[in-house]
Every structure is written in C-alpha cells, then in structure tokens.
Amino acid sequence: MIKISELEKIYRTEEVETVALNKLSFEVKEGEFVAVMGPSGCGKSTLLNILGMLDDPDAGSFLFNGIEVAHFNERKRADLRKHNIGFVFQSFNLIDELTVFENVELPLIYTGVKAADRKKRVEAVLDKVQIMHRRNHYPQQLSGGQQQRVAVARAVVNNPKLILADEPTGNLDSSNGNEVMQMLTDLNEQGTTIIMVTHSEHDSRYSHRIIRMLDGQTVTENILV
Amino acid sequence: MIRNYLKVALRNLWRNKTFSLINIIGLATGLCCFILIALYVLDELSYDRFYKNSDRIYRISSDIRFGGAETKYPFTSDMMGQTLKKDYPQVEQYTRIYNSNGSKLLKKGTQFITETRVAHADSTFFDVFSLPAIAGNAHTALYEPNTVVITETTARKYFGNVNNAIGKIIETDDNGKTLYKVTAVIKDIPSNSHFNFDFIFSMKNVNYQWGQYGSHNFHTYLLLKPGITPEAFKKNFDQYTDQYVLPEAKAYLQITSMDEFQQSGNKLEYSLTPLTGIHLYSNRPFELSPGGNIQYVYIFSAVAIFILLIACINFMNLTTARSANRAKEVGVRKVLGTERKNLITQFLSESILTAFISCILAILLAFAIMPLFNSISGKTMSALHIFTPAIIPVLVLLPFAVGLLAGSYPAFFLSSFRPIEVLKGRLSSGRSNGSLRSALVIFQFATSIVLIAGTIIIYRQLHYIQTKNLGYNKDQLLLIENGYALQNKLEAFKQDMLQQPGVVSGTISSYLPIPSSRSDNIFSGEQVIDAKNGFSMQEWVVDYDYLKTLGIELIKGRNFSRDFGTDSNAVILNEATAKTLGYTDPVGQHIYKSGMGPGSAASYTIIGVVKNFHFESLKRDIGMVGLFLGRSTGFVSFKMNAANAPAILKYAEKKWKTYAPEMPFSYQFLDAAFNNVYRSEQRVAKIAITFSVLAILIACLGLFGLATYMAEQRTKEIGIRKVLGASVGNVVTMLSKDFLKLVTIAFCIAAPLAWWAMHNWLQDFAYRINISWWIFGIAGVLALSIALFTISFQAIKAAVANPVAALRSE
Prior knowledge:
The complex is a heterodimer of chains A (225) and B (810).
Chain A: E1 2-12, E2 17-28, E3 33-37, H1 44-51, E4 59-64, E5 67-68, H2 74-84, E6 85-88, H3 100-110, H4 115-128, H5 144-156, E7 162-166, H6 174-189, E8 193-197, H7 201-204, E9 209-214, E10 217-223
Parallel strand pairs in A: 3-8, 3-9, 6-7, 7-8
Antiparallel strand pairs in A: 1-2, 1-4, 4-5, 9-10
Chain B: H1 2-15, H2 17-45, E1 57-65, E2 71-73, H3 80-87, E3 91-98, E4 104-108, E5 111-115, E6 118-121, H4 125-128, E7 133-136, H5 138-141, E8 147-151, H6 152-159, H7 162-165, E9 169-172, E10 178-186, E11 199-202, E12 219-224, H8 230-234, H9 236-252, H10 258-263, E13 267-274, H11 275-282, H12 294-321, H13 323-335, H14 340-377, H15 392-415, H16 419-423, H17 434-467, E14 477-481, H18 490-499, E15 503-509, E16 520-524, E17 534-542, H19 546-550, E18 554-557, E19 570-574, H20 575-581, E20 590-593, E21 602-610, E22 625-629, E23 635-640, H21 645-659, E24 667-669, H22 670-677, H23 679-713, H24 715-723, H25 728-762, H26 773-800, H27 803-808
Parallel strand pairs in B: 6-11, 8-10, 17-22, 19-21
Antiparallel strand pairs in B: 1-2, 1-12, 1-13, 3-6, 3-12, 4-5, 7-10, 8-11, 9-10, 14-23, 14-24, 15-23, 16-17, 16-20, 18-21, 19-22, 20-21
C-alpha cells in the first residue's frame, strides 16, 4: 500500500540545517498495523506528516497504492487525503466550537456526502465507539478518553484505508489508553491499515511490526506476529 | 504609579504594532473628520452672532401668494420699516438694504470694473449692525445722498490706504453716471455674515417710486427694544396690513378687506426672522447670500459623531478581541495582588494614551488637509481655527473622552477575568463577548451603507437635474454680461457677433432661466382685476430672437415678429399661465396688467404659448411667466457651435473693447451658471462622498483587524479542518461567512433608514428622482464586496498556511 524509498526532508533556518529524514525507505502492506518508535526529534512526526500528505518530501519517492504522490500539489494531496486517510492525534484536535456529532461529521462534509447519509454514518460510528449518548456535547464537556474516542470516530467515519495515529494514548490514563488501542486493533482486524507513532512499548505491542528510527533513518525492524 | 502605567502602556502599543497601528490610524482618521466637521458646524452656527445686538435684530420676511403658488420673500415694501418705527415704540431702530442688480460697474483709474458685493442702505444701517469704522463716522456716513462706505480691503484696492480713501470720489454707472463720496471706511465684514458688501451706498440714490406699501423690494431689519419678543411684536402685523397695505391694494384691486383677499386663496403674511437664524433657517429666494441649511448641519454633525463612533468601535473590538492574549497578564497581576481598579486604571491609561497619540496625529492631519476641506466645503477656514478658544478645551478633553469611551468596555471586561481560570487556560478564546462585537460591526456597516446609499442618491439627483429636459437648451450658450455698458452700440455688437462663423443666433435680455433679473406684476384675464381673478406673473422683457436662442419650444401661436407692428402689446405665455387662465385656445385672447386706479389696466394680446421651462431652481414648481417684447440689456446671449467657442470669445472681447474700451468684458456660460444654482447640493455631494469613503475605510480597518485576529485565533481549527480535507475555498468561506452575515444584517437595518433619510432630503426638490431599490442593492453589494475583500486577504492567508505548523504549536 505504501512504499517509500530514499525519502529526504531537511528543515532549514538561516543558520542551521536539520535533516529530519535521511534517505528513509520502507514499505507497508495493506492490512498491516505498524508502530514507529524512536526518541524525540528522530523524524517520526515528519514521517507521519509526509505519509499523511500534509507535507511534501524534499527528495525520494512515495508510492501510495502504486501512485507516486511525492510531488503532488496541495489540491491533489488534499483530495487523496480526504478519501483515504484518517488521523488520530495525541491532543485529540477536536474543534471546541463544534459538538461531538458535528466534529465527526466534518470529514463527510468535505468529501461531499449528503446530509441524510451523513447522519446515518455518523450515528453508526458514534454507536461503535459508544459515545452516542454524548453526541450533542462539546469537547470540553468530555473526559480525555471520551474525546479520543470521538477523534477515532472522526478518523474512521469516512472508511479510510489508512489511519495515521500520532501518540494516540499520550494524553490518556492507562485504562482509557487500552480502550483506544483496542479500538485501533479492532479496526485493523476489519482491514484498515494503521501506522502509529508512539513512545510506549506497551502500545507498540498491539502492532504487527515495529520500525525503530534514529536521526531520520530506520535502525531496526521487529516483526511481532 | 502613573509612570508605571504609561511605561506598560507604551510597551504594549509597541509590541503589538499591527493592532496599535490599526487603532491609531483608525482613531486619528476618525478624530480628524470629527475636528474638521466640528469646525465646519461651528462656523455655520456662528453666522451673524458677532453683531453687538444680534439677539435683538430681526429681518421682516413676507409670504405672498397671489393667483399662483406661494412665494416666500425676504423682502418688505419701502415703507414698512419706517412705518413700524413710527407706530410702535417697541422698535428701537430699523434699516433697509437694497441691491436690485446685485452688481455695479465702478471706475478704477480709467477702467470700469464689475463689483458684485454692493448694496444701498439707509443711514441707520450702522446703528443696527455694529460694524466698526476705522476712518470716518459710519453712523452719519450715509445720511447724505451720493455717499458710500467702503471696507478696508476695498479702500486699499482703490486708494492705496485707508486714510487716503476718505473724501475720495467713486464713479459708478448708476443712471449712466453717478459720483459717490467715500465718507467712512469700515473693517471688512466677517465672512460669517449673511451679507458681505464691499460698498454700501446711500439709499437716497436708489431710483425708486418711494412711498409704496404693496411692492416688496427691500430687505428690512428691525432692532427691537430689549425684552420685546418677536412673537409678541408679530401680532402688530395684522393691524399694520389693514391700516396701510389694504388702502393701497384697493387702488389696484377690487377688494374691500384683507379677509376677502385671503378667502380668495391669497396670502400676505409677515414674520420676523431672527438675524442669527437667517443663514441656516431662512433659505428664501433673493437672500443676500446663498444660505446654509440647518438640515446639513445636523447631517454633518451626525456623520462626524458616527465616524468617531466607528473609530472608537474599532478600538473596542480589537482590544476585547485580543483579550485572550492579555488574559494571562491579568491573571498574573491579580495573583500578585493587583486590585481590579488598578487594572482598570492601567487599561484606561492605555486607551487614553492611544487616543492622545491619535489626537495629535489627527490635528496634524487636519492641518494638512484643511485647504482640501475648504475647497470641498466652500469655506475659507484657516487651520489655525483649530486653536481658537472654543476648540482648545475640546481638543484637550477629546482624547480623554474618546479614550474612556473606547477603553472602558475593554477595561472592565479584561479586569473582570478570574485569575485561576485564566491561568489554567480555561478562558475560551475571546468568543464569549462575540455577540457585542457582532453588534458593533453591524453598527459600523449599517452606518457605512446608509452613507453609501445616501451618496448615490445625492449624485443621482444632481445628475437628474443636470440632464433633465429643462424646456430650454442650456448648452453652448455664451452670456456676455453688462450689455447696457455698450449703450446704443449694443445692437451693432450683436450684429457683428452674428457674422462670426459658429454663432447661430443671439438675443438681448436681462431675463434668463438662471439667477438674473426678475420682475413680477399683477395680471388678470379680466379687465377689472380683483382678488379672485388676479394673479402674480413674471414679466420678462425679451427680443425677437429670444425663443430661438434659448431653444424654448413654441406650442401654440407664433413668436414675436417684425412683420407685426402691434407686437409691443403682445405677450407670449408659458403653459402654466395658459392653464391658470383656462382658455381652450388662449391665442388671440387678452390679459390685463394692473395699473393705479380703476380702469387703468393695460391690455395685451396673447400671440403664443411656450412649453413650460424651468426658469427657477428645480426645487420650485414652474411658476407663471409672460414674455413681452422690449429692451432689457443685462445680457447679450449667443448660441454657438462648441468648436468655434475660443475664436468667438476672442472676437467678442476684441469687439467689446472697440465699442467700450473702459468697460469690463465679462461673460459666463449658461450651463455653468445653471450648475452654480446647485452649488450647495454639489458641495454636500462632495462632502458626503468624502466622508462615506472615510467611514467605510475606518470600518474596514477594524474589520481587517478583527479578521486578522480571528484567523490567528482559529489557526488550530483551520489546521484540523485542512487535515480532514477542507480546501482553501472551504476555509475562506468559513472565515468570511460570519462577517458577511453581519454585513447582511447591517444592510437590512441600513436600507430603510437610508430610504427614510433620503426621502426627506428629496422633498426639497419639486422635481426629483424616485428612490429605486437597486440603489440599495448597489450600496449593499458594495459594502459586502469591500468587506469580503478586506476579510479574504486574511482568510486566504490563513487557509493556505501549512496545517502542520498549526497543529504542532500545541
């Protein structure tokens, strides 16, 4: 599904050049659950942004379902992204001014799904993450665990082929964290590919494979399954 | 403590340069408008207040209707002033002004020049109006005939200096040639006086049939004794009318009482106009100078206040919108033990400091654009007017007032934050007071839309006036003034001109459809004229070529013709008069002009009827006018081809100089003279457009600030939305929608308001445009597009930003 080779990303300021990704190469097959680990500043987030098509690489190749997307323009990337990729963030990134329902509905609006259809799908997914009873609440009125469940619901509502999770349990206590990890596992079992950046060895054990990074390069790959 | 406040305030201004700039520029512009308009309004209100007894001086005005429409004159008869003084002890003094022509030819050296600021006045003129003399004794100066009082500037112009002037002789063209001796020199009359003369000649030289009560031709002023109210004195007018006007009217009309006169639908009513109200309230035809208008004073005052409010609202909006950024500071200060009132003082000192800086900028700005403002407003104010005693306290207090007005809400709002919530970041980002901010934005845009719509309507009305079919053709008509100066060579001059290529036709007449000579008389369709069948009609003396030259259309009968020997007893009427007479075919019928005593009415044969033409301002209905064949030599007018105009003018001047080398050659074009009639409306249009542009600019400045702030506040949200697939268009729409909603609401409020205001303004015009809906459409769309343009700049900037950066800044 994803094949990156010789991927490079360099951040420049006036004085310093920081190499975030240094000729990074790996492959993720459809249906895989991959954890990316490594110390702070090793390039995990940069990698995730490029995989999520939020950022473009300076060099190298990025094949998504066999299509070269490394040099796609903003509009094409946005189009590919909204139909194929869901995001889960450490800090949830829900919009404070929108209700739970409206937050989850957002990706469907941007992909042009009709209102009646949207309602059905949002309700179904809210049911699945067991937050239906709080559909009209605002994010600030929910606990962290509940907020992250909403965020997961928002990530999957469009039935993406790929979910990118950035430290999804980082802001949660262990029981809430486990719940979220279980949800991701369930989604993976239903066929969604998942790439997750994490610091937690515990969480990484939910994955099939761990890619360990250091200074923008892959150090090791452990296959768990 | 105050130093600490000022220090923090200055640093805050410096740190947030964009917001400070928006605040200061907005406030400075608003204040500058306010200062300029305030000066304008104060100047308008100051008219005629400098006379010592200005509160006791009244002008007698007369409302007269005879047959046709009512006319409001600023005139009385020649006898009225002296009769009132003789009969009523309440009158301390009276004086009359007479300026029938409005201009005279005066000899300076060997050349005659046209002086327009001239009048004849009674010797009591200076007893009523306290105009100080700097040479001679003004109070006795006009007692003798052939005397004249001149102003300081005029004395310098004619005689080099003031002391030289006394006893000198001035030659005028009155009755061919009349000499006047300068008996006093007065200080120049201040520009804020409703009359402005350079020469005041003795009344005794006016060639007039003295002793009349019925003919109204004199501006008469009464100085009432202290304690006499005009309301009380006015009651005497009925008695005066019965005692003096009625007996004289009986000689012309078959009437027995004033009641009978009035029952026939006629009117003769006198009133007292306070001297200080003439400029702004009177506004009658034939005033001594074109007056101001209290309505405009109100409108401009409102505009000044609204512009200042818009600027203050920017300040309030931006400051409260940025409250989240200041919240942490408030929290820390509170935790450290600052009391609320100290915080309020701190925030207020910030806003007062901002207002103070803005005020200084505004004064500098006012200085810079004063000449421009003068040219727009038609005033001659010096920028130094800003520092007159009346304004200085205002200038000192203004920064405090504006600072308090604009700063109090933010100050109370910011200082009310609870420290714990603020420090824990629980304050939702400045949205809590969004509804007030929305209301303020609505207010700003409603004001702007009213101004835009108003401006469009004023311009359309002016355009309507300029392009309306006036019933005559005002284009390419050259008017050469003072035709009488050529005396018996005038006809030769006209013939010479007609030989020139490009000159189509020419006519000699003092009566033109612009401010020029007017004379009316009592006419009737019956030989015995009474209150019922009599009417007052303009009596215009014209020549054979008048209709042709002015392009006035004859709809019945014929023009004057040399083929008919009897045309000196013929008259051509306008439609309005024909309609009043009621004949199905008026041609061949007779009308009669009243004369002294029964049976003395003169008879005229109606030979033609012309289509109605607008001979007065379009503010008035078309009245009755009759054209009579004769000689009146005020103007020689030529219809010509535009292409030949320069050559024709050159030739005219050359010819003029050969016929009358001492006489000034002066000319105007009819269309320009016509436009002059609407100068005050044109002025208002210019002022309106200037200030609506400014109001919009200031409102947009605030909107820009708010949009910047909103985009900043919603960076994270925008980032999330983009990650979820929002396009740039989605984000721009989202950011703009809220503002556009506000502008739409503003439109709904503004449209009826603007309609109402402009409907009232248009009532001034007898001939006016309809207010069509699309004017509001344009105003609304314009405001909307300007708002959209302002917002989209920020919105697009926010929308194209990389979402990664927004999301990382957690």
